[in-house]
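Can you make up a polypeptide sequence alongside its tokenized fold?
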Amino acid sequence: MAKPYDATLNELIETRPEEWARYFARLTGIPPGPATSLDTDLATTLQADRVFRIDGEKPSLLHLELEGNPRLGIPRELMRYNTLIDHQHDLPVESVLILLRPKAVASDQTGVYQRLGVGGQPISTFRYRVERVWERSISYWLDCGPGLAALSVLTDEASRDLKSTVGEIADFLRNRVADEGVVRTILNSSYVLCGLRHDVSLFNDIFFGGLNMLMEESTSYQYILSRGRKELLLQMANQRFGVASPEQSRQFYSIDDASKQTILAARIFDAANWDEFLENL
């Protein structure tokens, strides 16, 4: 996955796994059906990002890999994953490479990978799907369901007006999701994913200030946000630096000043450890 965003993406998928499975299964042509998340350990040193079994008319496997940075050689890795998944489960496997931002594009991500023999002739041909998240519209990802709504912040459309995009996500969640924990996870994930495409000062201002105004008419959302700011920061810090010690947790929870919390939000992407994160606050 797209480190340091892998923990956030995993949590986002776990929030609504059936929506991720349904959307990408449809994208690859897998017949619809109940989805089960499978073990992603393929070998001692290999782990796929996400594998689903789709028990539709023709039971199949769906393999997802998410990337936020450019790397040559990913198609070869996808073919290896695909082969190992097939070997483990003995079912057809469809692989999808999910590119999270334009920077992630590499020249060999064509959707087809060929292994060549010593004479240059093709030995095998592997086909996979490439999904470029930013090329879709905001409404497209919202229509896919709450589990994929956070991907809206990665679109080209969001780059032109991030505040409006966050407002659309907030309105969508207010109308579609009753579980406060799920809402908080999706909003937190949206914030973290903004770091892939947007200036930190811009989305800090939106999430730590503007979002209050976007949802000021909803007392339940105000409650979520008032609790969620500090929980969001703690969640992100634990993902970035490891679980806080009792003393680090005590120091963190003692920071109630809004301006200092904003400083922490900016530091989350630059600090190397808990000490740097909490320094001089």
